[in-house]
Amino acid sequence: MTRLSSDTCESRRHFLGACASAVGSLRVVSVCAPLVLGACASVVTRPVTPINGRITLELIRYPELTEPGGSLKVMPDGAANPVYVLALGDGSYAALSPICTHLGCTVDIQGQRLVCPCHGSTYDRAGKVLQGPAERPLARLATSVSTTGVLTIDLTSGQ
After folding, report:
1. How far apart (Å, rounded) are the C-alpha atoms in residues 70 and 65?
2. What pLDDT, on the 0 to 100 scale, is given for residue 73?
3. CA-to-CA distance for 109 and 41, rounded, in angstroms?
4. Measured distance CA(82)–CA(73) in Å, rounded
5. What count of other Cβ atoms lies within 10 Å of the Cβ of residue 87?
């Protein structure tokens, strides 16, 4: 068993203290919290209520989906996992299961790729495998966009 040096323990204490101070500062100066935590907004999962096995999203209410490379995580009521909704850049959208087809870990959205933190499988924004060990694409749900800007996701269509 390796023992930690006193320098290592001191560094760890310093790091933990700095983290605690930062969190405490955010509570005290809550006005600044949105600025500091702005980058975390993309990881927020939004609850949605499916109707007849479908989710409808008015794109005007989700500006992140109108941006190139935009993404959104939605959690349908009663579902075990969220759905990743990704703008593909050509006016179309992909609605994907976040569950890696290798061993079932949850993939992370990292720009133009979805990456499994467990074993490194990498997918494109349409769910296609770019790098294994996964051999199958992510489950993709059927999507359609109306002329009035409503995105519909069919939860019963997982491929």
Report:
1. 5
2. 92
3. 13
4. 6
5. 22
- Domain identity same for 50 and 122: yes
pLDDT for 66 equals 85
In this structure, are 72 and 124 located in the same domain? Answer: yes
Question: What is the token pair recorded at 67?
Answer: 């941006």
In a domain, 118, yes or no: yes
Look up the domain containing 13 and give its range: 1-38
Residue 87 and residue 132 in one domain: yes
Residues in the chain: 159
Residues 140 and 70 occupy one common structural domain: yes
Please list the ranges in the chain whose pLDDT falls under 50: 1-16, 18-42
What integer pLDDT is reported at residue 1 of this predicted model?
46
Instruction: Look at residue 133 and tell me if it is in a domain.
Output: yes
User: Number of folded domains in the chain?
Assistant: 2
Give the CB-side neighbour count of residue 35, counting CA atoms within 13 A: 6
